[in-house]
Amino acid sequence: MRNLNPRRAALLPAGAVLALVVSGCGVLGGGADDAKRDASSGEVTESAAASVFSLEVGDCIAIPDADQMLVEQLDAMPCDQPHDAEIYAEQTLAKLPEQADLETLAGTFCLAEFEPFVGLAYEESVLEVTYLYPTEDSWAQGDDVLQCVVVHPTEDVTATLRGSAV
């Protein structure tokens, strides 16, 4: 699993662990740099650098280089445009766990949600998993969401990964 963090994030490449951590800089969500959305469906309609605090389940995104672990923004785009990742599940946390407990919780939750979303067991899939998670700073600003992210490790896709069975 891989961790992306300025707000939240981690990634599970076939057997490894990586996470994206969300940074607590700035105000949570609702900023001028949020992705444009369709009013009725809530789907992203225009590519944009979006605050990680504004990302939602179903958003298609681009994951930054593996060496960038703390993130405040991710590129969000309509799912029919090239992207390598999609937010597929989220869980509200009652408290901010210690790092090791957070990684265990994220791994367990995200892997359990993987097959129902993708349509194939994680062990059989080419896809990887990461997650976005709060830091102490972002938690203090009200960030209490763990988000699971499915990632295609080798290529961009131009459709949702929901039901893709890859």
Evaluate the radius of gyration.
14 Å
User: What average pLDDT do the residues reach?
Assistant: 83
Q: Name the structural class.
A: alpha+beta
Beta fraction: 25-35%
Helix fraction by DSSP (H/I, runs of at least 4): 10-25%
In N-to-C order, the SSE pattern is EEEEEEEEEEHEHE
Shape by Cα distribution: globular
| β-strand number | 12
User: What distance lies between the first and last C-alpha atoms, to the nearest angstrom?
Assistant: 18 Å
Discrete helix count: 2
Sheet of most strands: 10 strands, mixed
Q: Unreliable stretches, pLDDT < 50, 5 or more residues?
A: 1-18
Any descriptors?
single chain, 166 residues, alpha+beta, 10-stranded mixed sheet, two-stranded antiparallel ribbon, 2 helices, 12 strands, 15% helix, 31% strand, globular, disordered N terminus, Septum_form, Septum formation-related domain-containing protein
Provide a brief overview of the structure.
This is Septum formation-related domain-containing protein. This protein has about 170 residues and is α+β, with helices and mostly antiparallel strands. It has helices at about 100-120, 135-140; strands at about 1-5, 10, 20, 35, 45, 50, 60, 70, 75, 85-90, 130-135, 145-150.
Overview of the molecule:
The protein is an alpha+beta fold. It has a domain at 48-151. 15% of the residues lie in helices and 31% in strands. The strands form two sheets. Strands 1, 2, 3, 6, 7, 8, 9, 10, 11 and 12 form a ten-stranded mixed β-sheet that branches. Strands 4-5 form a two-stranded antiparallel ribbon. A hairpin with a 6-residue loop joins β4 and β5 (44-46). The longest helix is centred in the middle third of the chain and has 20 residues, at 99-118. The radius of gyration is 14 Å and the shape is globular. It starts with a strand and ends in a 15-residue tail after the last strand.
